[in-house]
Specification:
The protein has 23 helices and 30 strands. By secondary structure, the chain is α/β, with parallel strands linked by helices. About 2% of the residues have low confidence.
């Protein structure tokens, strides 16, 4: 039973005294209240009292200075370990007090904590930090050099479930240490996970706890006990970021992405002007809604009646696209608010990214005042193909499909457009987010979640303004549709570049990595991966199990494909004897069954056909990776067509499994790869990595969504 009264009383006392940290005895009170196991201890006010306490709890003991002004006790010479007798306890008390006064003559000293000394077991660290974007996070790592030097630590959003806490124990590099090595006992995983859960609940219940460290925690086969607790508080909590409700977000985003009428503020008849490009894209892209050009002097632009202000437009407007200099945006945005326009697409740059945060703050206030949602500023605009809407100054785009992509960077947006066009990847949307003064990734997730035209959401970002809100939405959306994120700033150099680009502060990348995993987001490691996942993951059927089999005509490809499976968390099936024998019927004696199944390079089309058919027919196999080697006997297009035929033959019988292919050979393999892709088989020339990465991404999503 949690005793929240004790916790509240302690925190109120600390606040009243103007302190930023709890003493160790106060920390113990909080731990006791939440059922976090800590050693026996007592506070001594004299050398004699220290000796008496130590004798009562049994030697050896640890002695530590207790002072709200001395947080780093060891540094102050305020810790003595392994005290064995009453005489040592008395001497230790005097020494600790003397050291503390020498360290900080003005320190308020409460006394010396005498604590039962713990020995044996595996030392681990359990704690919590408050991140500027994600809020409360709980952390777990192995003690000593593993956490200090190797940074072997993992994070999760607080609070966590028991299952999530158990996953943390397996997420550190040295996870095997917990399972018992060199004859040692494994730790009690349930007890450790329970302590993580309780810490996460404590910090979640009390936002003023900004940091909490249990270090070390001694984990044994019998349980877990925290030897030391450090708690830092911050009573100056910043106001939570304004977030509309989910219904409000959906309503506003539908108005913006599916407008019945659009105004172009700064529309122009002059070639080379952004306002001219936006008008042409709306017209030439095939948008069927109303288009209202807004210009202070023109009567007509590109055949459309022009208006001096949006307030002069007789009908309703859903979205206003801004193509005017930054300094004029606040005035025009105010008029949009007075007109009751729900959305503004702010193409202009010259705001926070250009050293003008006050100007950006001003438009945010205007948007909030009039309930106008802002996309941008500093963006290329957006495309929404189901409505033939090209609300952008970039080239028009009309290849419709099910992938929705967004980018924080305009340059990355251009790459998305170019790849999508080149690969004939159908998209439902391409959206620029820029400075994210208002609309950000979680608004887009909320919209695309209920958008029947979208099957996968792929996002590039340099930061998350509200990581907590993103994670909460992504956790829900990823159960229905794959969410892929390319988080830039993985390295210190990348983070520095990101911070100078759009005012982003790229946080600890390990936090992003772990939270993405926690909420089911697939993380792309490169721009190419983001694009290939967006293209390939929706093509693949959802696997029904973990068993992957490689069928290859080249032994070298089989080795590289096997490595790629390990790298991408895929499980190569251990081939049963009967299935092994079945494959051997179709391959030459010098080939190799097992997994990979190596049919060798000189085999005719029939060998590929028979082995692939067997792989699809056997229920124990859940997905196939094909490795093709260009030969005269089975040319590339012959291979591509036979694979497609077998796939369609099996589909007619109700058998559908993910198939990806790697093609090695002369340039003809490019055409063959494209043919396979058009027939539902993600295929790549000259690469053994990309096809397996795409399959791995599908598996990550299926696992996170609970479909396996």
């Amino acid at each position: 039973m949690l005793d929240k009264t004790v916790v509240r009383n302690v925190l109120e006392k600390v606040k009243a005294e103007g302190r930023e940290a709890l003493t160790a005895p106060e920390g113990k009170l909080l731990c006791d209240a939440y059922g976090i196991t800590v050693p026996q201890e007592g506070l001594a006010g004299s050398a004699e009292e220290a000796a008496s306490l130590a004798s009562e709890m049994g030697f050896p003991v640890v002695m530590k200075i207790v002072s709200p002004d001395i947080l780093h006790k060891t540094e102050a010479g305020g810790v003595i370990v392994g005290v064995e007798t009453e005489e040592e306890a008395k001497a230790g008390y005097d020494k600790i007090i003397a050291n503390a006064k020498a360290y900080n003559a003005k320190a308020d000293i409460s006394g010396v904590q005498v604590q039962q000394m713990l020995t044996g077991g595996q030392e681990v660290i359990i704690g919590s930090v408050t991140d500027g974007s994600f809020g409360k996070l709980v952390a777990f790592g192995l003690g000593g050099i593993l956490v200090e030097v190797l940074k072997d630590i993992t994070f999760r959003l607080a609070p966590v479930t028991q299952e999530e806490a158990l996953s943390m124990l397996d997420s550190v590099q040295a996870a095997d240490m917990l399972k018992g090595v060199r004859g040692g006992d494994p730790v009690n995983r349930e007890a450790l996970a329970d302590m993580i859960v309780r810490v996460s609940e404590l910090v979640n219940d009390y936002p003023e706890i900004s940091e909490l460290d249990l270090n070390p925690v001694f984990a044994t086969k019998d349980g877990a006990i925290a030897a030391d607790v450090r708690i830092v508080v911050d009573f100056a909590q910043k106001a939570p970021r304004h977030r509309p409700s989910q219904d409000e977000i959906v309503t506003a985003m539908n108005k913006i992405m599916r407008p019945k009428a659009v105004a172009v503020i700064g529309a122009s008849s002059e070639e080379g002007k952004i306002g001219n490009s936006v008008m042409k894209n709306l017209i030439n892209g095939g948008y069927k809604g109303e288009i209202y050009p807004v210009h202070p002097k023109a009567d007509e632009i590109l055949g459309y009646k022009a208006y001096k202000s949006v307030k002069d437009v007789p009908g309703e407007i859903d979205t206003a696209i801004f193509a005017i200099p930054a300094k004029f945006v606040p005035g025009a945005l105010t008029e949009c608010g007075e007109k009751g326009i729900p959305g503004a697409v702010l193409i202009p740059s010259g705001f926070a990214e250009a050293g003008e945060p006050e100007l950006q703050d001003e438009i945010v206030k205007i948007g909030r005042k009039y309930n106008v949602r802002l996309m941008g500023p500093n963006i290329y605009g957006f495309y929404y193909t189901p409505e033939n809407l090209c609300a952008t100054f970039c080239t028009a785009y009309d290849v419709k499909g099910s992938a929705a992509l967004s980018s924080q960077s305009g340059g990355i947006g251009m790459a998305i457009i170019g790849f999508s066009r080149s690969a004939q990847m159908g998209v439902s949307a391409i959206v620029g987010l820029g400075n994210k003064s208002d609309i950000d990734e979680d608004d887009l997730l909320t919209f695309f979640e209920q958008d029947d035209n979208t099957k996968i959401i792929a996002q590039h970002c340099e930061d998350l303004k509200d990581g907590r809100a993103f994670a909460e939405v992504a956790r829900r959306v990823s159960k229905k549709k794959p969410v892929v994120v390319l988080k830039a700033g993985r390295t210190s150099a990348g983070a520095k570049a990101a911070s100078s680009h759009t005012g982003a502060l790229a946080g600890n990348d390990k936090i992003y990595e772990d939270v993405f995993q926690q909420v089911g987001v697939i993380r792309a490691r490169s721009l190419r991966q983001l694009l290939e996942f967006a293209r390939g993951v929706p093509v693949l059927p959802t696997p029904k199990g973990e068993n992957v089999v490689i069928i290859t005509g080249a032994g070298g490809s089989g080795v590289l494909l096997s490595d790629a499976c390990v790298d991408n968390g895929l499980e190569l099936m251990s081939m049963p004897d009967d299935l092994d024998a079945a494959f051997r019927k179709f391959i030459p004696p010098f080939g190799a069954a097992g997994n990979p199944v190596d049919i060798t390079g000189g085999e005719p089309p029939e060998t590929y056909k028979n082995t692939i058919r067997l792989g699809l027919q056997d229920d124990r196999i859940h997905s196939l990776i094909l490795g093709y080697w260009h030969t005269i006997v089975t040319p590339p297009m012959v291979f591509a067509k036979l694979v497609s035929e077998v796939k369609e033959e099996m589909a007619a019988k109700g058998i559908e499994k993910p198939i990806v292919a790697s093609l090695a050979g002369d340039y003809e393999v490019e055409e063959a790869s494209e043919y396979l892709y058009q027939h539902g088989i993600p295929a790549y020339p000259y690469s053994t990595e990309l096809p397996v990465e795409v399959l791995g991404a599908k598996y990550k999503w299926a696992r996170g969504a609970g479909l396996l």
